[in-house]
């Protein structure tokens, strides 16, 4: 019961922080729990996949209903990223289970990935309404466009995707990483959708959640089939994250997002360094 209570409280805090900072809860769950607990990294990644799945399952239907995204927009993206997410899930479990120091390599790679995520977070800026460059062949074939009401300007806006060929290559890599480490991929999806495909930021966030929903549902089957999803980790994590996200949403108007975001990035920096050190020491056989 002590472990379940710890994971619940841990996830509750992450759930509160995530809406305030704009950092996805799944991105924080796996590296922080890996860095600051002794739980096997395979089970943490399995729990992380289920947390990301539950979070996106809650928000995606509302976004679709309001017109912020649609299945036509994500279809070519998930055709690529689903395949790589499936392969990434198997690859991550294969490395950690088939090699003597496999879990240490995964921990090291997780720390390096987290450092890369921090770099992206600190260097990319979101554009509210980027100017589209025109529809390409993929966009036209799949009709990757839509219309929604934008509350910040009080009128309907039309949007369409651009640069889809470049975006497909990027989503292939993102799917691999998300499946391999059990992370939600909002940290990468949103910049690609907003800055490469030139979608409005609200549309980019909604489309990212739908992509995460469809991708993590594939990766979840891999982790469940391999026995890496434990109820004693997954259930308290989802409960804590769900309750915490509701509290965090209520606090968004009362707390400065910039302060919270800076604090979160500092915490993630510590987690990245801790995972890298743990991975290197484990590979070197230093206890």
Topology:
Blueprint: H1 2-21, H2 25-36, H3 41-65, H4 71-98, H5 102-123, H6 137-142, E1 145-150, E2 155-160, H7 164-181, H8 186-196, H9 201-225, H10 231-251, H11 257-284
Antiparallel strand pairs: 1-2
Helix pairs in contact: 1-2, 1-10, 2-3, 2-5, 2-11, 3-9, 3-10, 4-5, 4-7, 4-9, 5-11, 7-8, 7-9, 8-9
Task: Classify the helix fraction into a percent range.
Answer: over 70%
Task: Describe the largest sheet.
Answer: 2 strands, antiparallel
Amount of beta strand: under 5%
Structural class assignment: mainly alpha
Spatial order of the strands in the main sheet?
A: 1-2
What is the element string, with H for helices and E for strands? HHHHHHEEHHHHH
User: Helix count, per DSSP?
Assistant: 11
Radius of gyration: 19 Å
Q: How many separate domains make up the residues?
A: 1
Strands, total number: 2
Low-confidence stretches: none
Question: Roughly what is the average pLDDT, rounded to an integer?
Answer: 80
Distance between the termini: 27 Å
Query: What gross morphology would you assign?
Result: globular
What would your notes on this structure say?
- The protein is built from eleven helices and two strands.
- The chain has one domain.
- Strand 1 and strand 2 form a beta hairpin.
- The protein is mostly helical and 287 residues long.
- The two termini are 27 Å apart.
- It has helices spanning 2-21, 25-36, 41-65, 71-98, 102-123, 137-142, 164-181, 186-196, 201-225, 231-251, 257-284; strands at residues 145-150, 155-160.
- It has a two-stranded antiparallel sheet with strand order 1-2.
- Helix 3 packs across helix 10, helix 5 (102-123) packs antiparallel against helix 11 and helix 7 (164-181) packs antiparallel against helix 8 (186-196).
